Fold this sequence. Notes:
By secondary structure, the chain is α+β, with helices and mostly antiparallel strands. The chain has a single domain, classed as Glutaredoxin. Helices cover 42% and strands 18% of the residues. It has a four-stranded mixed sheet with strand order 2-1-3-4, with helices on one face. It is globular and about 35 Å long.
Amino acid sequence: MVSILGLSLIGCNISEESEQTPFHPLFSEDENYYSLLVVNEAAGRYDLGQEWQEKNDINNVKTIHGRSSLDDTNNSYKFLELERSPAFVLFDTDDIVFKTYNEKELIKFLKLMNLSDSLFCNRVL
């Protein structure tokens, strides 16, 4: 009886672990989409929301995090090692995928990744 109870508890723990949230809050929660961190210390706010995504034909970013202090961001997330602002850091579910200080480079990378994903899907089908 005790062993049956033990096995059921182990089973519960395994299913809970497989449904955990991402390892890091900046990482993407969905393996089919990226998460983007934008750090901009300039007086104006970088608006990279839905309108920006539609205008630039970006559809592989699900979450966008905005920060206004480079120092605070580097202190909170030392592994980023950001050098200047604006900074754009793209994450998948477990790591940094791309880091740049140029919005046009970010857009180019996202479009390239979107194209490669669609080419892969067409080959699989």
